[in-house]
TrEMBL record:
InterPro entries: Zinc_finger_PHD-type_CS, Znf_FYVE_PHD, Znf_PHD, Znf_PHD-finger, Znf_RING/FYVE/PHD. SUPFAM superfamilies: FYVE/PHD zinc finger. Residues 2-60 form the PHD-type domain. This is PHD-type domain-containing protein. Gene3D superfamilies: Zinc/RING finger domain, C3HC4 (zinc finger) (3.30.40.10). One of its GO terms (molecular function) is zinc ion binding. Keywords: Coiled coil, Metal-binding, Zinc, Zinc-finger.
Amino acid sequence: MSVKCGGCEAVVHDDTYMQCSRPECTKLYHLSCLALTREKYEALTEDYVSCWMCPECVSMIPKRNNSETPVRSTQNTIMDSTSFTPSSYVNTARGSRHCQKTTDTEDKLFEVLHEFRLEMKSRLDNQIKEYGMLKKRFVATETELREVRSLMQVLIEKANKVDELEARIEVLKQKNEQLESSLVLKNPTQGKKDQTEGSKVSFVNAVKQNLKTVVTNKVARKECVATKPTELQIQSTTSHENNLNINHINTDVEEKETEEGKWITINRRRNRYPNSEVKRGGSTGTNEIQGTERKKYLHVWRLQKDTIEENLEKHVKYICGNENVRGLRTKLEDFYAGVTASGAHLFAITETGCNESIHDAEIIPPSYIILRCDRADGRKQGGACLVATPRFELRRVSLPGDINIDKQSNDIVNCNGRVLDLVLSSLSGEGGVCVCGGGAARAGGRASPTA
């Protein structure tokens, strides 16, 4: 059980204290409450400590002998004769007083400290929560920054690609200007006529008009030619453009078309566009290939009953030849200009030396189609390509192994059932061959030598 100090009423925790020797009192006192130091306490004798009385008990003893006191007890007389040490006369009233004000102040101080501690604890809890929220936000921000960095990398790659495409467009624009200037130099009369009329014809339209110019054969007036449409499906857009171009050029030619079943009858009143290039024999009794006008269809062949395969092969070799330019990759600009200025419909080129780094737009104008067979091993020489107008159909096929495609450069594979397949064996790259085929309306054309 804890014991309180008789002076300050605080709990005595220390083992160094003073206890009153009177049996009625036996109170304990701190050394500090008695104004004693530890050195002085250790200097005291055991007899003095065992006989020591507290300040309250000492205050009850008279300080001097008063003989005039009416009532004197024997005990008081004996106590008066008792001798005291000088320390007994020390005034210890200061330590024996009850300090109620100091005790209240300490209690208030403890309460304030307790409240301050609780407040600081709550504030620290709030700070910890805020730090957790900030940590989550920092993690989310870091994730977003990583995503933005990856997106920026993609955008940089796209921007570099756009720059490359813009540079390529500038090169193509320069080529376009050069071709326009060369076209103006070749056709100065047409250029002056266009300037006089005030209509501006672009390079693409000029090329289309050059490709779609209708060349007619020398046919007697009011001659009626009946042809049967082929199985090839002609696109509506191409037919519409061809009709527009034909109407623009041949304003003096009047046509009347009547559909009788599956036959189309073309009535011609006037023939102003003879085509000497495709004329092969003028007599109806000959078995040579006889060409007709190329207007609504690309090319129509009228065959006699006695026409044999050799006649077809001879005529095809005449109008579709192949040229060995050797190194087309070093002559792209010249070839591009030659194709644009030429009115041919088919070009067969061998030993091109092209690879996948060369785009089709660098070889041919937009109004042509191309079928390429490049070198797969990356060698500079070798490879071939077919360049044709959209009127042709270019496709890849694989021939059986028993056909010797190296026998000759051009070979007629099939000429039955109004279908003509022309195999250009020199265009073979790695087992596959380039084929230009598909019936009378799309098997014709003329290939001019290119170098």
